[in-house]
Amino acid sequence: MPLLGGVRPPVAVLLTLLVTVCCLTSFTVGNSDDQAVSRAIVDSQGDIAVDSARSLGASLEQSSADLHDAVSLLERGGRKSPGAVLASLATAYGKWRGLAVVDADSGRLLASRGEHIPLDGLDPDEPGSRLVGGASGAPRLVSAARLERADGTRQLIVASGPLRLPDQYGGRSAYVTDAQGRTVLASGPHAADAGLRKAVQDGRGDVRRAGHRYYVIGRGEVPAGPHVRDLGLTVSTVVPVPAGTAVGDDRLRGLGAAGALLAVALLVTWLLVRYVQRPLLTLHQEARRVARGELARPVSVRARGEAARIAGALESLRRQLRGETAESVRALKGRGELRDQPQRSRRQKTAYRSTLRLVLAGCATLIATWAVALPLAGHGQGGQYVPPQAARDQRDRTQAAADRIRRTLGETVADLTSIAKLTAGTRVGDVLDDARPRHGAWRSLYLVNRDGRILARSGHHPLDIDRRSALAKVKPGGTAVLQLNRSGRVPVAAAVVPVGDGTRKLVGELTPDAFNGVLTRSGLGRSWLVDPSGRIIASNQGFIAFRSPPAPGGRTLAATAQVKGAKAVEGLGWRVVTHKPLSWTRLAAYETERHAELAALLALAAAGLGLGWLELTVLRPLRALDRSAQALAGGDRTAVIYPVHHDEVGSVARSLELIRQQLAAAPAPEPPLPPPPADRDARPEAHREAREAHREAGSWSSSSAFSS
Question: What is the pTM of this model?
């Protein structure tokens, strides 16, 4: 038999795979990843640090982008003196602590405003952003943009602003380190702790013990952007966690599950060997014996299903090769020289008519039962203990998401204000087409008069909603953020700023995508931005506008945070709602459930591979061979039997083909023997001669057929 063919390899592979799953189950199921602190808390601190790093990077990028946008607006206006340029920038934006105008060709300082800005290292051809130390030691982001006049003169507008860490909650401290590991900025109740500073600077480990408390450290790198290159900054957050949040191993569960699977694997192997492998090997040997012409001994195969039926057909063919006809068999039985075959019992008849597929189905059922029972055995135990810190972290991250919504709205108001002020009011309508593409979150940008009539527009056509009543709520000369509709297919929010003397308003409509990206953070779960009525206006996943978010399940971390803190968002009443299923966390109980599900899937995959291999390469050809053997035993000598594989089934097929050729080449059967003479004294002698003649005729037929 070939190395990878036959009935043995699938059975051996199935046993090997199931034993491997047993070993994996014993090492993973019930094994807790917790060490000193629950892994769920460690993961949430890492997510908070990444959120803070992304918020810091977005703040730096926004500061640099605002400078470039402001310079672009100044280029469209008339020529101004360097001092007037700085005055316009200071009026439009209040985020920069220092401003300067430098001649791009000579590097000479033309005007400055606010704190001192180090001007060394400026590249007039590729102005960018860099990090410098301020007068108080705090780091500053220095951004530069090139202002090109119509007369060909070039000036560099340089602005410096502080690094502002996002607000931290729950007694959490934040540290910013540079590429050399030095702490450049720190905030929070433990900002001055030398031990924590050293642990943050080391960059190794995420848990530090101090007495009966632990400090969990999360880290996140500040990403680069189109205007701010990679500054090599890392944000680290530190939060104190009490002892007792870790969960120990439950080794007995893993060992019990592995032992049960090992018992199932041995039982499955025994069933396959007992009812498939051993009968098929015996059938292979018996078929070869009959094909060689060894016809004295009846075919004896203890089998069921297809193997039993093929064995019965092989026994019939053996008798045909011996030349036993129905008449001769009846005569021998009548004289007592041939016994009747014992009658099959009901159980044997059922086994004879059955199929070996039932054995495979039983094996698959055993493995599937274990695979289903293993996850269900520990299902529902995950919510027994949830560390309070995990719930606090979810609330803190929800509040941080609300703060990001507030900053997005505030930046929109600031950008619109810069457009209104840097274009001197009267030319606002001329710059809309240039300003809107630089802000991907703006759906449309338009200028309206006192009556709400649109004077100039850029972007998508405004939706059919009642803007006049909404804009009428804005106080003259004031700024606001409005929710323009309470129903419809697309929620629309808008920022409104006055233009000139306040008789006109500049309106920027925001798409839901402006908030969807802000709500999307790793490990936060499902999050929604809802209006005062609790209807959805944005989400980090697909949503139906103005529907209520689903109620949180029993095993869910749910949190709500109000969008507040800026004058522009007063009266909105927006809230951020988050739902994080506990199964998404790395709590020890849920880790055990996931490991159990993995072991169950691997066991099912092993069963599919081993049993499927056995079905395709053994049982399916065996069923086809069963049909061919029954036809051959019934007298069909014309159909050639071809072996499918070079294995046990193929060997039986080749033996049946040799038998078919022997039967096809055998002479026609002899006529029936004459009846015995009437003389009683001559009857024994006549019977003896008849038996000898019959035996000689049978042996001649067998030898001639075998020779052919």
Answer: 0.74
